[in-house]
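Whiteboard transcription, Tuesday session. T.W. wrote the structure tokens on the left side:
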């Protein structure tokens, strides 16, 4: 089996709007492989890897309280910190230079990004080889969408 565009032929290839759960989705710019790794969903292609974790709001905390906790848990070496206010959500992201597993002398750019809604939040950790791919990482983060599909919350027409 021949790998397409450097993708692994032993894993599914996905592209475009991808439904993560009944509520969460993400738009993948181009083709990515997909797998589950320690309970997290992973999308990757040569040069970029994105880990997705979705957390329920089991303690019924406000969006602001969870955002404050995420900010307080941020690595002190974080830079390019961004917070975006949406109608029913908050987005928060920062960048880090992570130590590379291949070499202690090299570091790898990373984006840690969160989208927080009332019921849950999505955590995205994107690692990339080329600094220019920060634009791909930001695009992934900003494409994350939450749509409540609960029929009890959907207005009914009479």
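and on the right, the sequence the group agreed on:
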């Amino acid at each position: 089996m021949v790998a397409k565009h450097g993708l692994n032929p032993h894993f599914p290839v996905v592209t475009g709007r991808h439904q993560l759960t009944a509520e969460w989705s993400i738009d993948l710019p181009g083709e990515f492989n997909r797998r589950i790794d320690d309970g997290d969903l992973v999308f990757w292609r040569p040069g970029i890897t994105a880990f997705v974790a979705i957390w329920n709001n089991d303690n019924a905390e406000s969006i602001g309280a969870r955002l404050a906790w995420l900010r307080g848990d941020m690595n002190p070496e974080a830079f390019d910190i961004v917070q975006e206010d949406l109608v029913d959500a908050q987005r928060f992201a920062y960048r880090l230079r992570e130590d590379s597993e291949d070499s202690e002398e090299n570091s790898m750019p990373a984006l840690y990004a969160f989208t927080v809604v009332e019921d849950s939040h999505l955590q995205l950790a994107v690692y990339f080889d080329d600094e220019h791919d920060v634009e791909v990482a930001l695009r992934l983060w900003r494409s994350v969408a939450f749509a409540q599909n609960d029929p009890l919350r959907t207005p009914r027409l009479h």
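Someone added at the bottom: The two ends are 55 Å apart (CA to CA).
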